[in-house]
Design a protein that fits this description.
The chain is an alpha/beta fold. It has two domains: 79 residues, Uridine Diphospho-n-acetylenolpyruvylglucosamine Reductase, domain 2 (2-Layer Sandwich), CATH 3.30.43.10; 82 residues, Uridine Diphospho-n-acetylenolpyruvylglucosamine Reductase, domain 3. The chain has five helices and ten strands; from the N terminus they run αββαββββααββββα. The strands form four sheets. Strands 1-2-4-3 form a four-stranded mixed sheet, with no helix packed on it. β9 and β10 form a beta hairpin. The longest helix has 10 residues.
Length: 172
């Protein structure tokens, strides 16, 4: 009798965040539809996510989501690991005339912090549901403005956990 292959969750590296096998993604999307993530990972913070990406098996697919405001999940679910960015990715800071924020920061909250600091140009974010990470991914826009109009640089992680600082032009 042969031994059963280890489950995906047993093959993943130790993390400070949380893993959950067969997590229903309908519970974390605004449309409340769709199947489960094979494994849902909620990293504690950026360092936890970097460590996970660097140590995960290469054959394990990774899908990153924010608050699920513009996301439809297929009924069959998502194979591999779905990374949901949470509280550890929501910081927003004013640095002079710039806003620095995490990918999980809500667009509306970024606009509010900018307004409170008398920084104009981000008002259009009030009309866009979701997170800054999603807004960058799709070049979100409203009222004649787009993220590309206000972005200076973004830090991004590649699938192997390497950090890259990208200009707006480099993001395409």
């Amino acid at each position: 009798m042969s031994a059963e292959a280890p489950s995906l969750i047993d093959r993943l590296p130790p993390v400070r965040g949380r893993y959950r096998a067969h997590a229903p993604l309908a519970a974390v999307t605004w449309f409340r539809v769709g199947g489960p993530a094979e494994v849902l990972f909620r990293p504690a913070d950026r360092d936890d996510l970097i460590a996970f990406l660097r140590a995960r098996p290469d054959d394990v697919p990774v899908t990153v989501i924010g608050v699920g405001s513009n996301l439809l999940v297929r009924d069959g679910g998502v194979p591999g690991v779905v990374v949901r960015l949470g509280r550890g990715f929501t910081d927003i800071a004013v640095e002079g005339t710039d806003i620095v924020c995490g990918a999980g920061a809500l667009d509306l909250n970024v606009a509010r912090v900018a307004a409170a600091a008398d920084l104009g140009g981000l008002e259009f974010l009030c009309g866009i549901p979701g997170t800054i990470g999603g807004a960058l991914r799709m070049n979100a826009g409203a009222y004649g403005r787009e993220i590309k109009d206000v972005l200076i640089t973004a830090e991004a992680l590649d699938p192997h956990g390497q950090v890259h600082r990208l200009s707006c032009d480099e993001l395409g």
